[in-house]
Amino acid sequence: MHWQALPLPACSLAESPRYAHCSWAWVDINKRTLYRLNQADIFKPKPENLHTLQLPDEIGCVLPTAKANTWVALGRQGGWLIEGDTCTLQLNAPFDSGKHRFNDGRADTAGRIWISTLVDARSPASAALYCIESGKAELKIADLIVGNGLAFSPRGNSAFLSDTRHKCIWRFDYSVKTGELSNQQLIKQYTEGTARPDGACFSADGSYWVAILEGYRLERFSERGEFIESIELPLAKPTMPCFGGAQGNVLLVCSAQADERFPNKPGFENVSLVACETGFKALAENFANATHLV
Prior knowledge:
The chain is an all-beta fold and 294 residues long. It has strands at residues 4-5, 14-20, 23-28, 33-37, 50-54, 59-64, 70-75, 78-83, 86-92, 100-107, 113-119, 127-133, 136-144, 147-152, 158-163, 168-175, 180-189, 196-202, 208-213, 217-221, 227-232, 238-244, 250-255, 273-277. It starts with a strand and ends in a 17-residue tail after the last strand.
């Protein structure tokens, strides 16, 4: 793949890239900033189309809704509703926010909000995966450290989840009707070096694409959890991929800031986002139902 560095602001921790309503969005968690690019072409961003919003919380995850300028945002304090440039806290955190924050999530095809947490100290394993519905956050999977990589398959009947600190990826069967996960299966345990799974997405063909933090790569799995291939990246610390663009064939990858131990490849030294055109197509984002926050 021919990766291109994007002429966009450098981020400390770029995360949660999304493509919806012909626009791109991502957050810088550390700088508490939401970026929204109101155009389909990510390669030549027009300055007038790039909108930044300072956030009132450490937002780890943003989810599109059916309304183009309305987002669900999840962070340390809980669940927020972003309407234009207005952020309103709708759901208080169901955890000790002095030690945890919301990290990574998705909406399912019914609009439920699924979101994992992380433990700031990376110990003990007190993080979890929650499902937010009708104003309540129900704990679904416990004993996580850094919940990540949540994605639902194109048919919506399976889900993948990773734990960055446990360095593993699981697959589940999923019932949209009941909102229940079952048949948990470990599909990958990373054991070599510091490389570990981070954020992920599905493409329309049923491939699960996961960013390998400190691994300079993405890895692709089948919907059944079978390893397919590794895709080399010029970024040392990719955090999450996202498909989008006018034709749905652009793959965008966000990253954490490189350092002396894990530098980006030459020509990408201070880059936070890269993209390339692919032979794959985007799986449209499920819209979060914002009324589930209250």
